[in-house]
Amino acid sequence: MTRKNKIIIFFLSLLAFVLAAKFAFAQDPFGVGETNTLLEGALVAADPRLIITRIINLVLGFLALIVLVLVIYAGFLWMTSGGDEAQISKAKSLLKNALIGLVIILSSWAITVFLLDKFSEAIGGGGGLGGGNNNGSNPGFGAIGACTVESVYPVNNQQNVPRNTAIMMTFKESVQLNSVCVNSSGAACNCDNTANCRKLNPLAIRIYETNLGDACSNGSCPNPNTNITEVNVAFDPNSDHKTFVLTPISVLGSASQDTNYTILLTSDLKKELDGKSMFITCNANYFQWGFTVNTNLDLLPPQVATGSVFPLPDNEKDVYSIITPAVAATAKIVVNSRPNTFSPASLVSVLPNSASVSGLADYHESIANFNVSVPSGAADKAQLFNIDEPSNPVLLGIADFDANGQAIFNNYFIFTAVAHPEGASWNVYINPEQLADTLTVGGLTYTFATVAGNNNIVVPANFTVAGQAFSIRNKLSGHPDINVASIGGAVNLTAKIAGDSGNDITLQTSNSAALSLTQFNGGADRQESNETKDKADRPMNSVIQINFNEAINPLTVSGSASEVFNQLRIVNAAAGAKSAGQNCGTDAECLSYKCSETNQTCVANYLAGKFVLSNGYRTVEFISDNKCGVNGCGEEIYCLPANSHLKVELRAADLEDCANNTECSALSPYNNCGPAAIGYNICRDAPDAAAHNYPVARVNALNGIIDAALNSLDGNRDTFADGPIANNAYNENNPNPANKDNYQWSFYISDQIALDPPTITSISPNINATEVGLTAPVQINFNILMMNSTLRSGSLPVSNGTTTVAHHLINLWSAAPSPLGYWLSADNQDTNLDGEPDLTIATINHSNFSQSLSFNAQVGSGVKDIYQNCYKPSVGPGCTATDANPSCCSGVPTANLSPEGNCP
Asked: Which residues contact residue 801 at a Cβ distance below 8 angstroms, ignoring those fewer than 6 apart?
């Protein structure tokens, strides 16, 4: 047999063997099988396509095994033929048939992968069954969740999107405005929410029908252009240039058939910080997602979802009877000696003095005595030794002398000796740097220093224990958790919030010799009897939450209270509450609960704080700006006024007006221009008084709550938009459908603070579960209502005075090189059917899982409940962490996390 024929037989045998092994042993070659996900452990479920996949595996594997047998048999016949032409001819025929069979098997494989891939796309899987990529053919989708994109609307693969829906995007970093907008001439400009500069930059943000493709893919746009480029851009001025609303001038899609759209954000979209691509740190330097537009327009106005506000409407204050008053925890700091302040390393001497030392600012170790010597036979070299123990010198490094006689010992100093003959030696004596002592109280860490500023506690030049105690008292006097006083050399601390929780306030120092500490103790909760009237009064640290039945346009509902008060505000519900500028004696007399101490007049007509939109643009939350403590992660907690009666007021947006029927002709069935209860003419569906209004808000002067299709709020939930009729708000405390379309409700706040951290009661899929479907969502059930604005991806930086710590939120990842794209949603559940939501279920929605990979899901300490308490220590299914082991990794309490703060 020739060498060529042997090589051919070997190659065919090897190929057939590999193919047979592939089909025989692959658990899921089409990507619909097993994944192993961890949520502090893990999550997973099953996919019905797995049965089909395994049947195909078995059939193709069996056929490949037959090919292998035929190739081996043919090779045996050929090699043992001894020149017999008949036997060689038979072997060749077998090899030929085996090769044909191999081609058929490979073709079957390719066709099957293609069909399953298309089947996955058809059922919303997003493709990628055969691609070996977490995001299928779209690795750019990994920018959401894992990288710079926070959320989008419509979400990826969303179906039945109305034609007049605006596209909304929120980023984790600020966007450079002149990369988003162009003017009427097509030149880049800073978006200004006016006609001067609000057109979409068609190269940075591309909107196109999926089947037509991206007409601007070569870096320029043709004319005519099949991409959707006539789009107005509006940005939320209160979001630090992170949230944008794109409104096509003409509605999307068609009235006769559904239309698939793709949104592509390219590298031309820039970061405000450095002008680089928004996606330069992502897996792919772009972001892409898609959705399907139906044949209808959205003419249903948005509503506040029934029973989905917090606190719930409450018509009567609870009755309290105190049995034992709360006791505040106390602690003490005694100054014994002068605390250390920072001093850099300094040179004592160099002996002999024929050399010098510089660059000690970079030296941060504790070694005080060094030797520098020049070895024999290497006059251009310098050796550095640690001689703190002269009998046991330790070599620290070797450096070259340069032309100026300098030898640079990195992380130590620069040694200079113009003359450095072989055998020369010098001793270098240094005073190492002295680190400053620290004092930690609660979530804040203070540093002792000779100058004021930042979190420095000044150490007096003329030190006395009483003077140092006074300096500590001055610095701690602004602490959110404690009241402070000093007597002589002692500083007495008292928790501002009385109760048992004060015993947990941290008190630590790095120098226990200079400062003696008595830890916080003696705190005791108030014992009382409580009679609930109507609904229970809520703690002061409550977050006010409003959930809508659909996505809300962010332009009028997010920002500080002073920025959105015309559309959304919290006020004092007490009868006779005074307006801004009126005389007052106490905060409780004012609409804003703020009476100026300087001129005794009310300040503003609403509570100060901020409104945050989250949860797929469906949840608005209000957080007061009145600091009242810290949670278990050292973050500030903000409180509503104690013992208050509060009212939340939402304003419907003004409706688009009209002058005549001609202006309404294209708005069927709203073709009649006529007077409405709001006080001006509106396009209506009939000429009589009982007609219904065209629900779209006045686009050029948005001044109320609107949805993604610009429909004005339906406050009384009658499915029609009536606009903001003066003095006619729908009151959830006393429902009357005749009131429309502004919305309000009121409730009572107690003088208590809730400090118990949230826990996770169940997860799905379970820890270390297998056979999870590629599209299976990850669900996390909490034991309490959650602060939805913290149910998002990434991490939250928290400063404790001297350092900033990243507290993780909710994240999902695997070991695959292409990250998952994922986004969060949340739903409140009424588990006992009493009309009051009890807990929140968070859902991680994601692009397709990949086969045979382990996935990690994470709920971090940045996640908070409705009372701003962080998820720490961790409590989850089968795991209760402690202060010593505050994390749960795969159901096991631990303190050992990776440097990034993740489970190892």
From this structure: 440, 443, 444, 445, 446, 447, 455
Q: How far apart are CA 675 and CA 655, in angstroms?
A: 12
Which ranges constitute the DSSP H helices of 665-714?
Answer: none
Please choose, from the candidates 557, 560, 570, the residue with its C-alpha nearest in 3D space to the C-alpha of residue 614.
557
Residue 517: strand, helix, or coil: strand
CA nearest to 894, candidates 44, 41, 43: 41
How many other C-beta atoms are found inside a 10 Å radius of the C-beta of residue 462?
5
| Amino acid (one-letter) located at 320 | Y
Count of H helices and E strands in the chain? 6, 55
| Of 752, 800, 331, nearest in space to 528 by CA | 752
Nearest in space to 472 (alpha carbons), one of 439, 504, 503 = 439
DSSP 101: H
Query: Could you give the CA distance from residue 710 to residue 167 in angstroms, rounded to a whole number?
Result: 12
Q: How many other C-beta atoms are found inside a 10 Å radius of the C-beta of residue 436? A: 21
- Looking up tokens 């620069």, which residue turns up? 414
Rounded to the nearest 10°, the torsion over CA 882, 885, 889, 892 is -70
Dist. CA 260–CA 556, nearest whole Å: 29
What sign for the dihedral angle of Cα 881, 807, 546, 586? positive
Instruction: State the distance between the two ends of the chain, measured CA to CA, in whole angstroms.
Output: 57
Read off the amino acid at residue 499.
G
Distance CA 5, CA 864 (A): 71
Identity of the amino acid at 541: N
Token digits of residue 674? 């006529």
Nearest-10 crossing angle of helices 49-79, 85-122: 170
Closest CA to 623 of 579, 571, 561, 568: 561
| Ranges of residues in the chain whose predicted pLDDT is under 70 | 1-61, 109-110, 112-137, 800-802
As a three-state string, the secondary structure of 766-831 is CCCCCCCCCCCCEEEEECCCECHHHCCCCEEEEECCCCEEEEECEEEEECCCCCCCEEEEEEEECC
| Spatial distance between the Cα atoms of 704 and 736, rounded to a whole number of angstroms | 21
Instruction: Sheet with 35-39: list strands edge to edge.
Output: 35-39, 853-859, 810-814
Q: Which of 498, 465, 469, 471 is nearest to 483 (CA)?
A: 498
What is the rounded CA–CA span in Å between residue 389 and residue 321? 71
Reduced to 3 states, what is the DSSP secondary structure of residue 902?
coil
Give the integer Cα–Cα distance in Å for 302 and 707.
6
**Model pLDDT, residue 106:** 72
Per DSSP (E only), the strands in 685-736 are 730-731
Q: Please state, as a whole number, how many other Cβ atoms lie within 10 Å of the Cβ of residue 39.
A: 29
Residue 108: φ, ψ to 5°: -60, -40
Tokens of 716: 């009384």
SS3 350: strand
Task: At 303, give phi and psi (nearest 5°).
Answer: -135, 155
Question: Do 358 and 453 contact (CB within 8 A), yes or no?
Answer: no
- Gap between the Cα atoms of 523 and 525, Å rounded: 7
Query: How far is residue 791's CA from residue 812's CA, in Å, rounded to a whole number?
Result: 13
CA 479, CA 687: separation in Å to the nearest integer? 64
Which pLDDT does position 734 carry in this prediction? 95
Give the per-residue pLDDT at 713: 97
Per DSSP bridges, beta strands 369-373 and 381-386 are: antiparallel
pLDDT for the residue 711: 97
Residues 6+ apart with CB under 8 A from 392: none
Residues 6+ apart with CB under 8 A from 150: 144, 170, 171, 172, 242, 792, 793, 794, 823
What span, in angstroms and rounded, lies between the C-alpha atoms of 326 and 318? 19
